[in-house]
Structure formats: structure tokens, C-alpha cells
Amino acid sequence: QVRLVESGGGLVQAGDSLTLSCAASGRTSDMYSMGWFRQAPGRDREFVSQVAWKSGGTHYSDSARLRFDIFRDSAKNTMYLRMNNLKPEDTAVYFCASSTYVGYTRNAADFDSWGQGTQVTVSS
Questions:
Q1: What is the three-state SS of 69-93?
Q2: What's the pLDDT at 66?
């Protein structure tokens, strides 16, 4: 089992940048990848980005591709999501997750462990 703890959320203004962190502990050697999802009020949880843990290869949703950057520090067992030029529609609870699924996926069911989430609110 992998334990995940997110941090870095908050209230920002449109156009600002914010970096989220996700610290992993436990059976991290079993992870193939880690990812970020988000859930806005009244909406389904949606995929944001994924990073392959060993190679560092990345995978993004269409909405995140141009403004967000996912990366990891293997030595610290920590994943990050750098979000630039934030928009009010980015407001959501952001969740990190880990997966033993081999390959890129946007399906939340392919992720095994989840953090508790961190709120990001972007004011206009």
C-alpha cells in the first residue's frame, strides 16, 4: 500500500501560478506511475496528468497540456504539479494517485492509492 499526502493548494487570482506537491510513502517500489486528478463541485473527477515513476515520461489532458507541468523527485518520493496562468475553471479539489498499471492511462480505476485532496480556488 502506498500512502499519499498532497500539499500546496490555496486561493489564488487568475493568471497566478501554483505548485502542488504529493509525498509518497510505503510500497513506493511497486508504483509504475503517479498522477493528478481534479474534481470541481458537481462534476466528475477528471484526469489532469500522469508521470511514469522510473522514466519520468509524462502524459497530460488536453486542458493541462499547455499550462501545467508534472514532474517528480524520485529521491524524495515526491511528485509535483506546476500550474501556470491559472483560470477560474481550474478551481477544484486536486487529488494525487499512484498506479501499478503499466502504461499511460486517464482512467481513475487504474490508480490504486489516493491522497485526501487539496483545494485550489482561482478567483477572477
A1: EEEEEHHHCEEEEEECCCCHHHCEE
A2: 94
Cell numbers linked to 36: 493528478
Amino acid at the residue 73: D
Integer angstrom CA distances of residue 117 from 6, 45, 80:
6, 12, 14
Cβ proximity of 70 and 36 under 8 Å: yes
pLDDT tens track for 34-80: 999 999 999 999 999 999 999 999 999 999 999 999 999 999 999 99
Cell 475553471 belongs to 89
CB within 8 Å of 99: residues ≥ 6 apart: 31, 32, 33, 34, 35, 50, 105, 110, 111, 112
In angstroms, rounded to a whole number, what is the distance separating the alpha carbons of residues 40 and 23? 23
